Amino acid sequence: MILLEIRDLHATVNEVEILSGVNLKINSGEVVALLGPNGHGKSTLLQVIMGHPKYTVTKGKIIYKGKDLLKMTVDERARAGLFLAMQNPSEVPGVMISDFLRTAINTKRERPIKPIELFRVIDKASKEMQMPYDLASRNLNEGFSGGEKKRHEILQMKLLKPELAMLDEIDSGLDVDGIRIVSQQINEEKKDKTFLVISHYARLYNLINPSRAVVMINGRVVIEGDMELVKRIDKEGYEWIQIEHNIDIEREDKRPIVLEVCAINERSKK
Amino acid sequence: MSIFKQLTINKSMVEDGILSLKNNDVTHYVFDEKLLPLNVYKIVLKAAKDIDFVVILRENSTLVTYEIAPYSRGKIMFVCEEEDVIAKREIHLLEGAEINLIMPDFYNGSRKLNIETKLLGRKARAEWHLATYSLNKDKKIFNISFSHYGNKSFANMHNYGVVLNESTLIFTGESTIYEEVKGAETHQTARIIVFDKGSHAQADPILNIYHNDVIAASHAATVGQVNAEHLYYLKSRGLTEKEAKQLITKGYLMPILNYIDDKVLKENFTTALERVI
Questions:
Q1: Were A36 and a residue from A23, A40, A181, A227 both cysteine, which residue would form a disulfide, CB within 3.0 to 4.6 Å?
Q2: What Å distances lie between residue A63 and A5, A188, B212, CA to CA?
Q3: Quick one: DSSP state of residue B256?
Q4: What are phi and psi of A185, to 5 degrees?
C-alpha cells in the first residue's frame, strides 16, 4: 500500500528554489534511505512534508494515506501519523519535558493519560534510550548535548507512535553507543512503522538495513536502488553519478570564495 | 495547609509611624497592606534568621517604605489580588542586608507600580524577579528601579511578561549607581512575549552610572513574538497552536515559582496561572 506519494514537488525558501520537482512513493513498512550531497534538498524535503512555515510549496502534491497533506496544518499532520526527528531540535526554554510529553501523548488519546501511567511510559522509554531518570523534570532540549537531543528525538518517536517516521541525520552528534542504541530502537520499531532516513554514513544504514535507497541531486530524486547503492556512495562518493547518469551536480555554494580582511565594513561604506 | 499565617498588628509594634517587625514576625507571615495603620509610613524588617515574608500590595496614595535592617537576610514576595492597583513603594537595604524580592503577578487587573529599591548600606544585595501577564485589555505598568548608594552593593533585576488580548504591558527598569559609590554591580533583564497585534508591549531599560569604579553594569531587553521555531517544534509533535502557546507561556512565567518553598502557595500560583493560559 502506498503510504506517501510526492508528485512533482517544488518548494522555495526566500524565493530560492530548493526542491525542483521531487517524485517519490513510499510504501507502508518500507525503510527508505535518503542520500545526496549537502545542500541538494534532503532536509528541505522532510521539512516540507512536515510543514515547516519557512518553506513555500510552489507546485506539486503530497498525498498521505489518500489525503492532501499540503492542506493540513503541522499539528494535523503529526496527529495523522507523521513524525520528524529533527537535525537540530529546538531548545524550548522553561517547557518541562513531562508537561510537553503529556500534552503530545494526549493529542492522540480520547482520554488524557493518567499521571502514573505517564511516569511509567517515560521511565520505560528513558531506560530503553539509556537517558537519565530525571529527564522528565528537565526543560525541553535545554542544555542537552548533541547526542542527548538525538536520543530524545527517538524517545519521542517511541512514545508518539507515528506511522511514518522521518529521521534527519539522527546519527550526527551520536557517539558509538548512541548509534547502537538508536539503531536498535529503529529496528524494533520497524515492525509497525515506515521510515524515511537521511544519513551521510553507511554505518547507520548498515545497522538498520534499509529496504530501498533514493538519491536526491539538484532538488530532485535522481536514482533509486538498494543497499548496494548506499555502499557504492559510501565508497566512491557522488562523482560517478555525474558521469554514469549524465547529471551535472550543482554546487551548494556557487559564489566564489573571496579572502578579505575584516576592514570590509569600512571599505564598503565608501 | 500553608505554613504562612496572617500577620496581625498590635500597638506595641508601632512607634513614631514606624512598624517594627522582628524575628518571628517576618518568618512565614502574610502581611495585607489593608491592615496598615494610617500613620505608618515605614515598616522595618529585622531577622537574624531568614526573612520569609509575603506582602499583599494595596492601592495606597502614601509612599510606604520597607526597610531591611543591617545584616538581615531572606526573601519578600509581593502580590496583588484581582483588582486594579496603583502604588508607590520603596525598599531600603541597610549595610549587609541581602534580600530576594519576588513578584509572581498572576492575577487580572491594571497596575501602576513604582517600586524603588535603595541599596543604602555597604555590601547590600538585592535580586528582583517579576513574572506577569496582561490580558483582557488590562494595562500593567511596572517601574522598577535600583539605586546604589552603598559601596560594593549588588542588584540584579529580572522582569518577565506575556501580553495578549489587546492589553498593555510596560516594564521600565532604571538602575543608578551614584557618584562616590565604589565597586557596585547592577544588572537587569526584561523580556516580553507579545501574542497578538492589538497588544502593546514596551521594555525600557535605563542605566545611570555616575562613577567609573563599577564592577559591572548590564541590561538586556527583548520584546517579541513567540519563537516560530519553538512553535513549529511543538506543533510537529501534534500540539495545536493553542496548546503550544500555553506550554511556552507556562514555561516562560513558571520558573519564578522555584523561589517559593511553601507547597500550598506554589500550588495556588500554579492554579492561578493555569486558569488563564
A1: A40
A2: 5, 27, 66
A3: G
A4: -65, -40
Beta bridge partners of B56: B32, B79
- CB-nearest to A94 from B237, B241, B252 is B252
Query: How much is the ipTM here?
Result: 0.91
The minimal CB distance from A53 to the residues B228, B237, B243 is found for B228
Please report residues of B whose CB lies closer than 8 A to that of A83. 236-237
What pTM value is reported for the model? 0.82
Q: What angle do CA B164, B170, B176 make, to 5 degrees?
A: 155
- Give the best residue of A74, A102, A142 to mutate against chain B (max B CB count within 10 A): A74
A162 Cα to chain B: minimum distance (Å): 10
Block residue for cell numbers 566564489: A256
User: What one-letter code names the amino acid at B37?
Assistant: P
CA distance A53 to chain B (A): 8
| Closest chain A residue to the Cα of B251, Cα to Cα | A94
A86 Cβ contact partners less than 8 Å away, ≥ 6 residues apart: A153, A168, B233, B236
Give the model confidence (pLDDT) of A113-165 as tens digits: 999 999 999 999 999 999 987 888 888 998 899 999 999 999 999 999 999 99
To which residue does cell 542605566 refer?
B207
Cβ within 8 Å, pair B241-A75:
yes
d(CA A34, CA A46): 10
For the beta sheet containing B168-177, the strands, ordered from the edge strand earlier in sequence to the opposite edge, are B14-15, B18-22, B42-46, B64-68, B85-93, B111-119, B139-148, B168-177, B200-209
- The separation between CA B69 and the C-alpha centre of its own chain, rounded to angstroms, equals 20
